[in-house]
Amino acid sequence: MIIQNAEALRKTAEGNHQQSLYERMKRQSLTTKITDRLDFVDVAKGIAILLVLLGHLLMGETWLKKSIYAFHMPFFFFAAGFFISEKPFRNYASRRIQTIIVPYMLFAFLFGTLSIKSIIPILYATNQSLKIADSNGMLWFLPSLFLSLVIVHLMRKKMRSKAIIAILSVFVFVSLGYALNQQCHGGILNIFDRWGLPLGIDIVMIGTSFSLVGYLFAYHGGLRWLGDCNKLTAAALSLLLLLVLLSVLYNTRKDYPQMATGDLGNWYVYFIVATCASIGLIALSRLISTLGRCQWLTWLGRNSLTLFLVHRMLVGILQKQVIRHSPNVLTYALSMIILCLFSVICTVIINKYFPYLVGKSSTQK
Fold first, then answer.
1. Model pTM?
2. 298-324 burial by CB neighbour count: b if 16+ within 10 A, else e?
3. Would you say the C-alpha torsion 123, 129, 134, 138 has a positive or negative sign?
4. Is residue 246 a contact partner of residue 67, using CB atoms and an 8 Å limit?
5. Long-range contacts of 244-249, Cβ-Cβ distance < 8 Å, separation of 24 or more
6. Which tens digit of pLDDT belongs to each residue from 233-245?
7. For residue range 164-190, what is the model confidence (pLDDT) as tens digits?
8. Contact yes or no for 25/83 (Cβ under 8 A)
9. DSSP assignment, residue 134?
10. pLDDT exceeds cutoff 60 at 350
């Protein structure tokens, strides 16, 4: 009798342990437990940053540029949502300030002019204001990403409790962003037309939508499922979703969308296409990671922020000195190789000697 009771207690304890473990895994952010083991997430970021570099090199209204701009920046909002942790807000925000806002401020002044006149437009933090400060307009991405992640972190518990709340929240964020953008350019907020809305709050709204979907995708097991799926499934999913991107693009826009300014055409279509393409890129990266020998893509993904920050220094030069005179496949390929080599060398130097410039500690070199 005693043995039977002991055995029953052991089974009950095991069941409770398995259940609590399952619940912990279900509720826990995938930042530390899952994505650390999924190299294909870094592979996807590596591919995405290469697309960013290529997209910035391309001149004119080409089909390739239109395809890249349809999802390359939304992907980084989406992927950043995977890594929203369960840390207290103060700790989480402090870490994001170190890794996002500090590099933004440093590089905004590095690219611009260190003067009193440039302080306000840099703190204003929009694509338009950064250009007014003679800085790098591409840096708009960093403050928008920071605010999007902070908003999702604050709302994450309510968002994951009920699907209907999450769906409605995504719709509200996209709609609010669209409404603010429209009022800024020709509406009652037209006084902000030249600089954009403070902190790019309209762009932050749609960025929050992407980060929220990314967080929920990871939280509800999307990354785990992709990590376990076979090559055929990954190939089929990536092909399907990338085809959605191309088919919708060709039927909705004549020029390329620009998330930096909110020139997105139909914001709802843009959101759906960019989300599908982002998932497709993750699935494609899962397929690539099974083939092996993609450590270089993993490295690019893990250093995507630094690559993003430094590549702008050479883009304009290559466009003026190489591409403009003879815009063909050969000159683009040559320029892309030069840009990648330059960006990688700068990244290696920063990681080794100046890691604090990109929010890293000396132990993270």
1. 0.87
2. bbbbebbbbbbbbbbebbeebbeebbe
3. positive
4. yes
5. 244/273, 244/276, 244/277, 244/280, 245/67, 245/70, 245/71, 245/273, 245/276, 245/277, 245/280, 246/67, 248/272, 248/273, 249/66, 249/67, 249/70, 249/273
6. 777 777 777 766 6
7. 889 999 999 999 999 999 999 989 999
8. no
9. T
10. yes
